[in-house]
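Q: A reviewer asked whether we had any structural model of the full assembly, not just the individual parts. We don't, so I'm hoping you can provide one. Inputs are below.
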Amino acid sequence: MSTLHTVNKSPFEKSSLESCLGYAKAGSAVLMYEDAVYGAIKGTAIADKIAAADGVKFFVLGADLKARGVAEDKVAAGIEIVDYSAFVNMAVENDKVQAWV
Amino acid sequence: MKFAIQVNEGPYQHQATDSAYQFAKAALDAGHEIMRVFFYHDGVNNGTNLTTPPQDDRNIVNRWSELGKEHNLDLVVCVAAAQRRGIVDEGEMQRNGKSAQNIADGFRISGLGQLIEAGIQSERLVVFGD
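A: Here is a predicted structure for the entire assembly that you could use as a starting point for your response.
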């Protein structure tokens, strides 16, 4: 059973991304969107925690990066930039969707 | 695949309803079914027809109504959350002695059972909120 975790809070403001990292099992996916896109920026304490999460795939919504003026080259290696269509596909491909609202 | 969507936040205050709309559109464009969109908590404010946003801004309420009409979506507003926030249809107006109704085109007021049913009958329930 794989889960798509959706996180929409900045990890520099709320702890939901870190909570999610504690629960996400190998084989699951984490999508950062809305203010959570700040968690995808390289060179932060959160980036280290994301890099250390074994077997979990990380994605960030490109439209929300752009809306916040975060350039794509600021995104940490290993985090894939996706669009809404890919968001939908991830919801289909995983067995369930868990929103960390 | 059969999706259900839950929206917990109102328009122009939080991105949740914008994200939910973009997700719904992408899902429909990909040929998926959305069996219900359930508006809960402040999300019921997406279902008022009294909003008049500036013309150069997106009209969040009309956008849901239009998507609903185009794809025959079941746009459901939670009754208890609606009563608290003044979202009223014909039945609620008469039942509660109100002077007007304001439910937007394509929306209907119903109960939490509709959310539970959406969770059971859909293959994925995707939640957007604060």
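A: Points you may want to mention in the reply: Chain A touches chain B at residues 6, 8, 33-34, 63-64, 83-85, 87-89, 91-92, 96-97, 99, 101 (CB under 8 Å). The longest strand of chain A covers residues 3-7.
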